[in-house]
Design brief:
By secondary structure, this protein is of the alpha+beta class. The chain contains four helices and eight strands; from the N terminus they run ααβββαβββαββ. α1 packs antiparallel against α2 (about 20-35) and α3 (about 75-90) packs across α4 (about 130-145). It starts with a helix and ends with a strand.
């Protein structure tokens, strides 16, 4: 990446020296796109967040294979996250990124009474935050290039009136 930026800077200088305005504009735009950090991107996906399940293991021909069943709802959830991220303008940025995930679950009717929330109702939803984060990061990983670029991760879960997953990437 550093070499590409250096070559683009040299191309901009050469275009200025030769007075090639069209090439100069194109090279300058590409240089700005590559050197400007990705702006904050926020997107939401409606519906209950789906945690990444533990992989199942089977053997075929004497070799173990780990998989998540094809009918598991995490596949549709990850696809919805990916589409929302692409629609929001998420792109591959080679630098470190920070991800904030807000997982809001719909409170079950069994937690409610006519007066409000039952005193015995749990204050937090059941799925572990790390499994929700794993599903989200696995979904945006191919867009970012690698989810190892995530340098900071904040995951919050709560009950709300409308179930949704909101992701903010900076």
């Amino acid at each position: 990446m550093h070499e590409l930026v250096q070559r683009l800077r040299e191309s901009v200088k050469a275009c200025r020296a030769l007075d090639r305005s069209a090439l100069l504009t194109e090279a300058a735009d590409e240089l700005e796109r590559l050197t400007t950090p990705m702006n904050a991107i926020t997107f939401s996906v409606p519906g209950d967040p789906v945690p990444q399940p533990r992989a199942r293991v089977s053997t075929a021909g004497g070799f173990a294979r780990a998989y998540v069943p094809a009918k598991h709802p995490v596949h549709a959830y990850r696809h919805a996250i990916q589409m929302a991220a692409i629609d929001a303008g998420l792109r591959n940025d080679s630098g470190p990124v920070a991800v904030v995930i807000d997982a809001v679950f719909a409170r079950p009717k069994s937690h409610l009474t006519k007066k409000g929330v039952r005193a015995t109702a749990p204050t937090l939803p059941r799925p572990d935050v790390d499994n929700v984060a794993k599903a989200v990061l696995d979904a945006i990983g191919p867009i970012l290039g690698d989810d190892a670029q995530v340098s900071r991760l904040v995951v919050e879960k709560s009950y709300g009136t409308e179930a949704r997953t909101t992701v903010r990437i900076t």
